[in-house]
UniProtKB/TrEMBL annotation:
Residues 31-127 form the J domain. SMART domains: DnaJ (SM00271). One of its GO terms (cellular component) is mitochondrion. It comes from Golovinomyces cichoracearum. This is J-type co-chaperone JAC1, mitochondrial. Gene3D superfamilies: DnaJ domain, HscB, C-terminal domain. GO terms for biological process: [2Fe-2S] cluster assembly; protein complex oligomerization. NCBIfam families: hscB.
Length: 222
């Protein structure tokens, strides 16, 4: 399944010849020159089919089940910055700036989706036509134990004093562990092509990520 952006991108790009760009990269506060040679001979068949195809260095094996669900986000970001440097409109002639802008937007969308475990899981499900509908994440469709944990954690956050860093730290550690466990389950289910079970676990992860957002907001406001 191709996004509307990718479809539009595919229609406009026909052939971009070999380009070689030398640019500066800041790594551990040391500037060094790295020459990247990018061969782009895009055709309808060679255009990226999924977000994973845009990051061949980091995501060599592609999406699950051929590749792992877990992603090295540091390596992903490094490759993302390299690709964005190559696609930056200012590095292209006026006639190809529009194409460069579309490429940059596509790379940015792919990175934003893949670097977060929840959006990554939702994206992988969409590739298999297992999108999560809003009503599916409702209270009636989630097991009681999960709802109890969510309500209990939210109440603990609301009742915590602004300066009670010990309680907030404890809640954050507990929730981070839930997220970690959920990612582990998703790794197994996606790897085993159990799309329905992966969908159920993604709904659970969505609750834990919402709790994480609440904790982060509370921490920022104190």
């Amino acid at each position: 399944m191709l996004s509307s952006k990718l479809q539009n991108y595919r229609c406009q790009i026909k052939n971009i010849k070999r380009t070689q760009i030398t640019y500066k990269i800041n790594d551990n506060s040391q500037n060094y020159l790295e020459t990247l040679s990018l061969r782009r001979s895009y055709s309808f068949r060679s255009l990226p089919r999924t977000h994973y195809d845009l990051f061949p260095k980091t995501l060599t094996a592609g999406p699950p089940p051929s590749g792992p669900f877990h992603i090295d986000t540091r390596a992903l970001r490094h490759e993302f910055l390299q690709l964005q440097a190559l696609a930056h409109p200012d590095r292209h002639a006026t006639s190809s700036k529009q194409t460069a802008e579309q490429e940059s937007a596509l790379i940015n969308e792919a990175y934003k989706t893949l670097q977060n475990p929840l959006s990554r899981a939702q994206y992988l499900l969409s590739l298999r036509n297992f999108e999560i509908k809003e009503w599916e994440a409702g209270a009636a469709d989630v097991d009681f134990e999960l709802l109890y944990q969510v309500v209990e954690t939210r109440e603990a956050i609301e009742n915590a004093a602004p300066d009670d860093k010990i309680t907030l730290r404890k809640l954050k550690i507990e929730n981070d562990e839930r997220i970690k466990q959920s990612e582990s389950v998703l790794s197994h289910e996606f790897g085993s092509e159990n799309w329905q079970k992966a969908k159920t676990e993604t709904i659970r992860l969505k609750y834990w990520m919402n709790i994480k957002s609440c904790l982060d907001e509370f921490e920022t406001s104190t």
